[in-house]
Amino acid sequence: MKRIPLLVAMLTLFLCACRQEKTLELKTAESQGFTYSYVPDDPLKVRIYTLKNGLKVYLSQYPSEPRIQTQIAVKAGGKNDPASHTGLAHYLEHIMFKGTADFGTLNWKAEEVYLDSIEQMFNHYGTLQDSVGRIGYYKLIDQVSNQASKLAIANEYDKMVSELGATGTNAYTTEDRTVYINDIPSNQLDNWVQLEANRFQKIVPRLFHTELEAVYEEKNRGLDNDYWKTYEALYAAIFPKHPYGTQTVIGTIDHLKNPSITAIKEYFDAYYRPNNVAICLSGDLDYDKTIAAVDKYFGGWKPNDKLPEWKKVEEDPITTPVTREVLGPDAEWVTLAYRFQGRNSDDYRMLTLINKILNNGQAGLMDINLKQKQTVLEPQAYVDYLNDYCVHEFTARPREGQTLENVQKLVQEQIELVKQGAFDTDLIEAAINNLKKEKIEASQQNWSRSADLVLAFTNDIPWQDFVGEIDAMRKYTKEDIVKFAKEHYANNYVVVYKRTGKDPNARKVEKPSITKVALNKEDRSPFHVALMNNKVEKLQPVFLDYDKDIQKLKMNKDVEVLYTPNTENDLFMLYFLSDVGTNNDPRMKVAVEYLQYLGTENMSAEDVQKEFFKLGCNFGVHAAEDRTFVYLTGLNENMDQALQLFEKLLAQPKPDDEALKKLVEGIFKQREDTKKDKSAIMFGGLMSYGLYGPQSSFTNVLSNKDLRAVTSAELVSLIQDFTKMQHRVLYYGPRKTDEFIALLNKEHTLPDQLKPLPPAVEFAMTDVKKPSVYWVDYDMVQEEIMFLSKGEKFDKGRMPITQMFDEYFGGNMSSPIFQELREAQGLAYSAFAYYGSADKAGDNDLFYAYIGTQADKQAEAMKAMRNLLTEFPKTQSGFDVARDAIVSRIESERINKWDILFNYEEARKRGLTYDIRKDVYDQVLKFTLDDVTKFQQQYIKGKNFNVVLIGDKSKIKLKDLQSYGEVKQLSLDEVFGYEKVQKINVEKPNQ
Known about the structure:
One of its GO terms (biological process) is proteolysis. The chain has 991 residues and is α+β, with helices and mostly antiparallel strands. The protein folds into 4 domains: 46-308, CATH 3.30.830.10; 322-500, CATH 3.30.830.10; 546-747, Cytochrome Bc1 Complex, Chain A, domain 1 (2-Layer Sandwich); 772-964, Cytochrome Bc1 Complex, Chain A, domain 1, CATH 3.30.830.10. The protein is 42% helix and 18% strand. The strands form 4 sheets. An 8-stranded mixed β-sheet has the order 1-2-3-4-8-5-7-6, sandwiched between helices. The chain has a 6-stranded mixed β-sheet with strand order 14-15-19-16-18-17. The chain has a 6-stranded mixed β-sheet with strand order 22-23-21-24-20-25, with helices on both faces. Strand 14 and strand 15 form a beta hairpin.
């Protein structure tokens, strides 16, 4: 008998299930002396242990590669901050990376004396009112801190986890939780547990004032972010009594300026205890060995018998609409929100279902009536699932000439349709099916699996309830949904109008000057040495064999088919990929966008979307500069029907002039909005201008003039020609090869002769013979600066040393870029550097170095960055960490599933016939620090750099910029190129 994979069986049972709610049971079992709880037939195979000290341990086994995603969750966040010290939980998160009494220090007893003094000095500093006196006293804090730094080892935690082969090292703080994250090789589990057990049992606030500078920078970045400002305004209005609204996770400016180390320690002692923490792991783990290791190192952690009890703050009902307004440089939008009970309440299930009925990306009421009909821009609905309350948020941007009030009205009309029951009953079933499909898709990633464990723990959701949440939604009828909507969506909302304009209340955190601190880069603590000397079973790297891991098939007309089987579940991914993009024809991007608004002769565009949604499938399109793909994904059992509809849409799209008119108008509005987007200006337009000059793939778009002239006929012709041109097929799914090829030959209609690809326009990077500084004026607190240079022609032989250089110089928190600019000098929250190998044979590599800094530190930050690029910092220990990190990462990395196909495509684009990671692995083991130094001297030192900068013209020190090159202010039209004349060298179809 053929064995059906567990997830396939689950999905099949699910699709056939009736509306009766299934009750899941939590059972207990024992293994190797440890008792655990579990849910039979749980697809994540979770075991939940509770140690004697109260520590929860959630384990999910998923051996897709020899790695484990780790998340340690503390059930305390911003809402637990004392009102007198907001931002405390978040700042503690930063301090948790500074080490303990056992690591991060050269001499703990001597260092502790300085740290105690600094703590008392900050307590006194918080009592000072006179600004002159505060400046003078902070200089004393700076002096003592500088002495203390001579006894510290900066970023030793990051060095250790890097050497273990960890990736994604990070942490986050929300209103309800604080979570610490690593992705580690499975053979390093014991070392990781030992390290984390030490870290969580004692806090040491070393290098406090430089990290405080980083938090200041983070706060200033938030003050520059209109989305963040809107979020704060929304939550302050919807939670006038609860800490969700009365304080923010990052804290107020006044509290950040008067930090209390004593209060941070008290918070740590209260909440960072085993009976308030869960270790959540998913990956290639052995249950018995893992829990034994956790118990060995964490078992002695003392619980808090007087753990603070959180008492929910009850909000008064909202009885009339509450309106707020936010001003800032970004484009306008409206955000509407309704308040509900928390994540672990009955409201959760109904909210999730209603949200899908309204906005599921395909066939929701907002998708059809707002997005598909193009009545507003970017309509979205989202539920923020907080512990104490949930917030159902709706947001959209106006079209040209549309008011925010009108956008709000259109959004609320969709909510009214739910209240009236004006939606298809089968939309409920389809929504639940798609929720289940999304859950299965997410379960293929250890990050998502471990995140589910974190949410269950921090929201106090019994695991059996968490597993059964989606199935439980089947009990709801259309009548139930309508009744709930009528009761909960009325005039009880908050609306925030984000308008474009100068913020009259703009503020920033003024940062006191500090002296550069010592980093002691070459030193290691005895704890570090001992940890690295622990013997672990070595993992052997596994490299792709493109001839074995991918089946290269042929369908009709000798079209290439790249096939990799999905042996895990019943989902498929199908791509039609062509090496034609906007560099071949800038109309391609508009054409593929147009496709989503088209139907066929027999079905409207709305009906097409609804049908795909009912089938549990969806299609998408994307046009890049040198390739375009259209894709179909979803449930294998419905693939035949979905492919038939997909092929019909590609071959016979019905032109719709009205839809095109709205699309073009929407693109014009989006272009104007993009010119107000700081990130798009910096990392899109300015970066491209600094590398290529005014003509590049970035600016190779239809000009506004040509966009007005484009017709339905020519765009439909481009769509129809897509599968008539040379292309290939990529497939990841459960179908057998013969069955899949037969389906393709039947449904994927091809012409007798495939058309050749049209020629592409080539863009070359600028040789920086005479450096320039290009800057754009933007209303912001900070400045963002980037140094850019053209690299050499791509050479696969340079890729290993390139990766070695990147890992050493600017790739992580223990790199010289991060340590010097953030740790030692407090000049930035974010700083990094990267030498990038070209992704296409014949193209040039590139180099960039980025720093985001406060405007008044522009000169100092730029000078520090230039010095690092010129006077290469060399540390043997830093090199060893970088080398070991690359080696361990490759040894534990497994490229599998659909990633095999895209890895092959990336290699082929570079002219490679094998997995380049093999070269990287072999050569990194032989590299020395001298090799990295030689790379820097050959490819970076002495190079001319163009500099690009975005900031407020009233704060930019233009005179200081002159030493970096000829200074030129760019207009946004120059940056984006929308107004240029674009020639299209293709024949238009007969009208």
